[in-house]
Amino acid sequence: QVQLVESGGGLVQAGGSLRLSCAASGRAFSRSAMGWFRQTPGKEREFVAGIIWSGGGTYYADSVKGRFTISRDNAKNTIYLQMNSLKPEDTAVYYCAGGRWSITPADYDYWGQGTQVTVSS
Question: CA–CA separation, 62 vs 86, rounded Å?
Answer without folding.
Answer: 14
